[in-house]
């Protein structure tokens, strides 16, 4: 079963109809220990405890529920709900919340799922409308998508290689970008004196030499003015 954008929303309700009794017992087992984050191995282990009949368990795993569980990376448990984070293909995440009482299913956005996860550790933060949310979706527009399972966990190297190649072709683009970063008229990264890639490179080399001679516990305030770019 390949998990596409629509298969998760369609597959779980269908699985509910096929295995309603087994699913309800599994969900009740998942919420038994209260709020927590469960990984795939924990979901599978507790399912085996609940469905101890090998034949029934095989039927569940061969059905839609089993196929969905195979793609689940983790689940957030906040009784009576269990929210599943499902990665059908590399870089393609879907989220769904299932109510253990009535088996109702609700698709979640990534923001909604993360709020549930944050709720486990800090309810005030999770409910704060002004909490910081950083959206890295802008990177999707210019960077190729990871498409191989072997690429999972190597995202940083992938992005670094792509960005590194582009910077080698046009290093001035990085300088222009850093110069453009400002807040209320104040430069955030560096000032106009470093307006070329060569000047920036030389300044970074000098800064590296200077910092290498300082004790590692030297407070930033002690050399802040020396590094004022």
UniProtKB/TrEMBL annotation:
EC number assigned by the record: 2.4.1.13
Listed GO MF terms: sucrose synthase activity
Family: Belongs to the glycosyltransferase 1 family. Plant sucrose synthase subfamily.
Catalytic EC class: transferase
PANTHER family to which the protein is assigned, alphabetical: PTHR45839, SUCROSE SYNTHASE 5
Keywords, sorted A to Z: Glycosyltransferase, Transferase
The protein's name in its UniProt record: sucrose synthase
Presence of the UniProt keyword Transferase in the record: yes
Species assigned in the record: Arabidopsis thaliana (Mouse-ear cress)
Residue ranges constituting the Sucrose synthase EPBD domain according to the UniProt record: 154-228
An annotated GO BP: sucrose metabolic process
Catalytic reaction(s) noted: an NDP-alpha-D-glucose + D-fructose = a ribonucleoside 5'-diphosphate + sucrose + H(+)
Domain named Sucrose synthase N-terminal: residues: 7-118
InterPro entries from the UniProt entry: Sucrose_synthase_pln/cyn, SUS_EPBD, SUS_N
């Amino acid at each position: 079963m390949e998990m596409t954008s629509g298969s998760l929303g369609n597959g779980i309700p269908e699985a509910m109809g096929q295995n309603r009794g087994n699913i309800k017992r599994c969900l009740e087992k998942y919420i038994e220990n209260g709020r927590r984050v469960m990984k795939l191995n924990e979901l599978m282990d507790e399912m085996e405890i609940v469905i101890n009949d090998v034949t029934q368990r095989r039927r569940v795993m061969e059905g839609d529920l089993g196929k969905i569980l195979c793609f689940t990376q983790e689940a957030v448990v906040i009784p009576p709900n269990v929210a599943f984070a499902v990665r059908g293909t590399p870089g393609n995440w879907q989220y769904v919340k299932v109510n253990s009482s009535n088996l109702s299913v609700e698709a979640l956005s990534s923001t909604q799922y993360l709020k549930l996860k944050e709720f486990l550790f800090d309810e005030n933060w999770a409910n704060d409308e002004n909490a910081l949310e950083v959206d890295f979706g802008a990177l999707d527009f210019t960077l190729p998508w990871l498409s191989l399972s072997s690429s999972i966990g190597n995202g940083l190297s992938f992005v670094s290689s792509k960005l590194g190649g582009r910077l080698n072709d046009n290093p001035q683009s990085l300088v222009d970008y850093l110069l453009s970063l400002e807040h209320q008229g104040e430069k955030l990264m560096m000032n106009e004196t470093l307006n070329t890639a060569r000047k920036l490179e030389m300044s970074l080399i000098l800064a590296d030499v200077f910092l290498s001679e300082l004790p590692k516990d030297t407070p930033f305030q002690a050399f802040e003015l020396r590094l004022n770019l």
